[in-house]
From TrEMBL:
Signal peptide: none annotated. Keywords: ATP-binding, Nucleotide-binding. It comes from the Eukaryota. One of its GO terms (molecular function) is protein kinase activity. Residues 1-216 form the Protein kinase domain. GO terms for cellular component: plasma membrane. Gene3D superfamilies: Transferase(Phosphotransferase) domain 1. Pfam families: PK_Tyr_Ser-Thr (PF07714). It comes from Turnera subulata. This is Protein kinase domain-containing protein. PROSITE patterns: PROTEIN_KINASE_DOM.
Length: 227
């Protein structure tokens, strides 16, 4: 592996193309799909529990590599889903405030974290421990506020939060921005049961038009179903 930098740093620089962003999001979704779908009747699924942009390294091919597994739970490892006082060990701003804080960890907590990462991928926004200490609103709090404000200002229901610098790219299609915005916001729904899962659902294709008749970005929502 020849790493470029963490996703956190690359998003701050705003140097990623739309195609690279989709490739990264697909890779992260695939990793969660693999961890959550390991079938073992004797053991619970693997949960990352601390997925955040700082824990994702991007290699020279713009593929994501999750490298921090310090809070992983499930599978053949210790089941730590019910442990309390674990919240501070995670990534502030990325950890599910509903499911994780009481210790009731589930796959949907990882989905929440993925949603925050996806919001960062399309908006260039990240969150750090310094942001948390200073009381800065988290990415998902900002996103919901911005989404509702734009709905109110425009009178439209479907809003894209994609950063303006990305919208000018040749391979960007505005309807994809709306779809990815909606997908990210579904992932960070306050009610965990309203969030998608990473079970394959080919009837729920996102249909991104990044590359006509290509498959680089057409499967992201396929990995996230509402069941």
């Amino acid at each position: 592996m020849k790493p470029l930098d963490t996703l956190h740093n690359l998003l701050q620089k705003g140097s990623l193309s739309w195609a690279q962003r989709i490739n990264i999001a697909m890779g992260i979704a695939s990793a969660l799909e693999f961890l959550h779908q390991i079938e073992d009747p004797l053991n619970p699924p693997y949960l990352l529990r601390n997925l955040c942009a700082s824990h994702i390294m991007i290699d020279k091919d713009y593929k994501p590599v999750i490298y921090d597994f310090s809070m992983i739970s499930g599978g053949i490892l210790t089941d730590r889903r019910e442990l309390t006082n674990q919240y501070v060990d995670g990534c502030h701003g990325y950890i599910d405030p509903v499911g994780a804080r009481p210790g009731a960890w589930s796959e949907r907590c990882d989905i929440f974290s993925f949603g925050v990462v996806l919001l960062g991928v399309i908006t260039n926004k990240v969150y750090s421990e310094e942001d948390f200490t200073s009381g800065k609103p988290s990415v998902h709090e900002w996103a919901w506020g911005e989404y509702r404000q734009q709905q109110s200002d425009s009178g439209k229901q479907n809003i894209s939060l994609v950063h303006a610098s990305i919208e000018s790219e040749l391979l960007f299609y505005s309807r994809d921005g709306i779809k990815l915005t909606n997908l990210a916001l579904r992932c960070v729904e306050y009610d965990p049961l309203k969030r998608p899962t990473v079970k394959q659902d080919h009837g729920n294709s996102l249909g991104i038009d990044l590359i006509p008749h290509g498959d680089l970005a057409t499967g992201l929502a396929n990995k996230l179903s509402g069941t």
